[in-house]
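Good morning,

Both structures are done.
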Amino acid sequence: MILRPYRERDAAATRAVFERAVRITASANYTSQQIKAWAPVGLDASACRAWAAARAAAQTIVAVADTRIVGFSDLVDRTRLDMLYVDPDVSRRGVGSALIARILSRARDDCATAVETYASLTARPLFERHGFVVIEQLRPVVRNVEMPSFKNARCPRPRMSRRLLLARNVWQELDPLAPRAKLPPSTGRLPKRQEAARACEMWPAAAATAQRLWLMTSKLCPSGSRTNAP
């Protein structure tokens, strides 16, 4: 299986995955009336165009197995995981988890402080396994039918480049008053203090540059966005 960005020709395939996931997988948690309201049949041309436009406008990622699209997810406005659907033929094979991980990676790259999603009864356990917590229980009405769901959120962990890690260490080496903020263990190997000391000798402007980089990074990825979730 590979993950890749959505392409214009993927509209029909992603719609088919959505409909199969709702009508087959979600039917274990929702009534037939709710399923029909959620995934109506017989879309007209304008509805199909609207679907394609929405997928193209979002940061949509598709999962492909043997040239067939078997799942998709997306990130909207850098902070909302809007859709996550996996074909029932490949359920419980890690497709959903892989898509969530890729979307969270996108959010980290955008330095989002939190990612929200509106999870169905069916999808809630998967999101919780990936560190999302329920913020609110919802009962939206879709086509005059009440659809129980949950507002969930989690904080993606920002990643810091080796250059910024080194800059931070150089600054701390030169300035004893510099903050000693802890980074999550997954940020990679922290440069040794000796490496920072050598960089100080070779990089005369290290202190000023490091402080500027560190302050810029702190503003983009505030410490409150860090989490111990996987």
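Second structure follows.
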Amino acid sequence: MADYVESRQEVWEPLRERHPNVWLGTSVETQAVIGRALLVAELSSIVRFLSCEPLLGPLDLTGVLDRDDGINWVIVGGESGRGARPMSEEWVLAIQAQCRRYSVPFFFKQWGGFNKKRNARLLQARTWDGMPARLPEGPTPV
């Protein structure tokens, strides 16, 4: 993916101005794929987000969240369905703390598991519904 994006900079560079409705993100399930997050952080898009789901291990987002004009939304959730692997509350809280440190909105989607309705969306007895700040209106169509 990185090679594809880098070879087509002329397409990605004007994206923010020409298409302010386009949000770009990637899944980051483990530290092994943190390179995806670094790539998205560099793209020219009005919103760049990480979907840390299914979260399968701890994530250190240093170098990703601490960039000016980088990632501006993080979603975290567990795996659902038969055979779902467990997600540690410690991992979720660590990501939440990193988001708070760098003023990045944090959205907790679900605990996951086989019966996700039973496990729900509560983290420390409440929901976390952070979203990117209100965005400027796009260009008026001609």
